Amino acid sequence: MTAGGSVAQFGEETDRSGSFRRQGNRFTDRPSNAPGARWPVEAGRYRLIWSRACPWAHRSRIVWGLLGLETAISLGTVDPLRDERGWRFSLDENGRDPVLGIGYLSEAYLRTDPSYAGRVTVPTLVDVESGLVVTNDFPQLTLDLSTEWSAFHREGAPDLYPAPLREEIDAVNELVYRDVNNGVYRCGFASTQEAYEAAFVRLFDRLDWLGERLADRRYLVGEQLTEADVRLFTTLVRFDAAYHGHFKCNRQKLSEMPVLWAYARDLFQTPGFGDTVDFDHIKRHYYRTHDQINPNRIVPAGPDPSGWLEPHGRG
Prior knowledge:
Glutathione S-transferase Yfyf (Class Pi), Chain A, domain 2, Glutaredoxin, four-stranded mixed beta sheet
């Protein structure tokens, strides 16, 4: 319960003002090339667990694919619907991940920390041999895929985190995370009118800022695709399908914001982006797992996704 008496979707992550405060990442180790590293960078040693529904996990899947890390890090996919034990491997035969041999991602969390009581999140990188969680630190994970794993990148892979642009990428990412990536959740999970309206204003102010920034440039930073574009894309691609209605982010649809809509379509039509999007998983996850927001769990039939393939006019 919050100060206003409303029931929050995630009570442990909602303060007394009704504002959503996302939990921290419990596991923050990193595969490293440093001598004596606990988790050395090694092909075949780790498994990346993601969900097609989750924007935080989706960014890892996009980076993993763009860099061509398929032969270095295996990929496991959880069901878009969670039950009381969290993310489950019900898409796999017999409901168990074929590499890790577990039915729920929570099994790896509890093997690593038997006292863990927080939400189980994706993406998660798991050490295959021990079954221990290495990291669920989603912002650092993709940066490490670009830097620590460079020896395994495919020929011609994009440099998503170029050294000369890192300071600007980090600055843009911080603003986009605060007001957009996490901002849509702060709208949707707010349990007071005041908390919702504050998050709503910050979200659309930042989207307006992004539209102005992208009006005369193709990408967010520099003249190339970077990590910043990946992070913004995974929120934008879910905007009309989930956040506009389910999270009440309804000043405008993405498709009613001309610059951002064209930018998002440009990315969607770039190999490695649109082919990783699953609108069915996205809608079923959001509308069927947040029972405080959508107690009837009815999944909307729209919007029509065909617009994503319309010419974007950028480039």
